[in-house]
From TrEMBL, chain A:
Record-given protein name: Dynein axonemal assembly factor 4
InterPro entries: CS_dom (IPR007052), CS_DYX1C1 (IPR037894), Dynein_assembly_factor_4 (IPR052004), HSP20-like_chaperone (IPR008978), TPR-like_helical_dom_sf (IPR011990), TPR_rpt (IPR019734)
Entry coiled-coil feature ranges: 92-149
Keyword flag Nucleotide-binding: no
SMART domains: TPR
GO cellular component, one term: dynein axonemal particle
Natural source organism: Onychostoma macrolepis
From TrEMBL, chain B:
Organism: Onychostoma macrolepis
Its job: Key assembly factor specifically required for the stability of axonemal dynein heavy chains in cytoplasm.
Localization of this protein: Dynein axonemal particle
Record lineage: Eukaryota, Metazoa, Chordata, Craniata, Vertebrata
GO cellular component: dynein axonemal particle
Biological processes annotated in GO: apoptotic process
Protein name from the UniProt record: Dynein axonemal assembly factor 10
Keyword list, A-Z: Apoptosis, Cytoplasm, Repeat, WD repeat
Amino acid sequence: MPLIVRDHTWTQNQNTVYISVPLKGVKTANVHVICTDEYLKVSFPPFLFEVFLFGPINEEKSEAKIGNGVAVFTLQKKRDESWEQLFTNIDKDKQKQIREQAILKVQEKEAEKSKAKAARVQQEKKYALQTMMKLENEERDRIQKMKDEECARATAELGFWRETQRKAAEENENQHNNQTVYQKTERANAPPAVTLMHNTGNTTSGQRSKKQKPKDLPAPRSAGCIQISFTPRVFPTALRESRVPEEEEWLKKQAEARRAVDTDLAELDDLREEERNPDWLKEKGDKLFTAGNYQAAVNAYNLAIKLNRKIPALFSNRAACHLKLRNLHKAIEDSSQALELLKPAVTANAPARLKAHVRRGTAFCELELYVEGLHDYQAALEIDPNNAALRADADKIREIIQGTT
Amino acid sequence: MSAALEKPQIIAHIHKSLNYTVFDSRWIPCSAKFVCMGNFARGTGVLQIYEIQQGELQLVREIEKAKPIKCGTFGATSLQQRHLATGDFDGSLNVWNLEVPESPVYSVKAHKEIINSIDGVGGLGIGDGAPEIVTGSRDGTVKVWDSRQKDTPVVNMEPMEGETKRDCWTVAFGHAFNDQDRCVCAGYDNGDIKLFDLRNMSLRWETNIKNGVCSVEFDRKDINMNKLVATSLEGKFHVFDMRTQHPTKGFASVSEKAHKSTIWQVRHLPQNRDIFMTAGGAGNLHLWKYEYPAQRTKKGADDVDMGVAGSVNLLQNVTVSTQPISSLDWSPDKQGLCVCSSFDQSVRVLIVTKLNTV
């Protein structure tokens, strides 16, 4: 419960009431005043001073001065009269009512004030924006006007130039006619000096070239042929059509494959110099394969692979040998290995991939794994769709699958 | 603010929409008329002659031909005759008298495939020597023709036996400063640029700029070759200084990336050989000025002269269309007037201002 302050003092004259309330040591910041037309409340915790005024006052015109330990209120009376006392005696209910009204009124007033402030801020922002836009528009218009002036000037010049062109053309015509006339008269009368002098007066370049004799043009050039060659490229497609990163990768892999040689095998000491070269061994293997000696070819390829695991052709060819030897599982393994090495898929290694797919497909079919075989044949067809034999084989396999299911 | 308008301005003066695809547009010398060449949707070729009158284009004449026309030039005719040499989609070279266009003055089946580019030299009172026309085609050959010799070219630059051919996309004449000397520069789709010397009948220089060459042009045809600009796909163009040739390194060059798309054409201003305009695949035009370096030659490592390339400054750029600008031609009579055609089936006449103070 707040402490009611009763030691206030008040004085009055005809139109003003002065109330002085001691603040009893409370800081001025903590003083809160609610004032309406017939009620004044000053609360400075823990103290409270309220007064129900004898007569109505003009709240807007009244002042409150809070400082120096005292709050002085200068209240403007609505009616010029002398008050007998500051308080009116009204019952509790009325008091409560008045209090509530006062609070409501204050709240309303605050709400109105904040609304008014918001509206004002909005107005100002709008105004600022509009002035900005106006300035920018002006700038733009100015530049546009300058551009249009340029344009108009240029078109005027153009029109003028065309006029001069036309006039020059007309004059040319006239001169031409005159010239022919003069030439005719020349032949008839032979007064050459006069006509020549008249002609030289005119300086248009077109006319000058007419007056000169037609230049003797040099004879047509004697025929020649220049043979040219174009910048070489490893891949047949133009640079702009190629998939450069993949091609680079493929070329790098090839280069690595050529270079990589695993030299730490003990058996190497037994071999002759040429037998250490995987390329030589591959050729040997190929020759043995064509001769029909499949086991020997496999041996050659084994050695070559031991030396260099990265050449896909070795695996692919060994797969072919295994096929002939009916080592179907080994054939499948080898052709899979070859296909692994032939990634990334570019047009340059297409024939090699084709062979590997066909060999693996055949091996699968021999093992009666027709579905996998068909997959490989389809992959091969993708690489080379024009191969009739492949297509026939693929169809056969499909029939077999459909026959058995 | 007035400083902004001291740069040359590119003003789109007239814009005309056509009802056919236009591939090339050329000014008729000594007149305010130009010719547009292209093909109708029905597959026939068309030549239209327009005249500028009071800010509008008036159609003077329309000539329809059997085959679509790809390119044309007035470079090899005299100022009186003003015959137009055209290359068409069928590989035929025809020279037309536009007053009597029913049958050509000269006609030959120049190539087996479409003629991509044509250039003429020796006419219009510019330069000395016989008037000649050069054509470059998709069949990989470049042929030089003289209208006095029927059926066979005067010079034929073809790939060797067994060589895979590459499309020739552009040709240009240059170095025609006296009766005998002449050079032809050809650009191919794999980025090759080859310079042929017609006096010695040999390949004088070649290089590769990695991307297909869309357009080459010498800054002047009738002088000792000074500069060559080559534009390519991927928005790059190269300016070569042609005065000093090093035996191994060739010509010095400076390259610039602009347009962010294919640069379709480059054309030098006839009145100032250091100013040129490039036309891009996004419908934009860039105006450039070349600045020469302090020294145009320097001594290389082995005491042989090497050229020094200068620098290129962008003067102005403007976007006039959304489709590529396929052709551009400066008027030889009025400085700053140019006509350009683009693949949105329209032709525009542009005025470039303040070129005399650049």
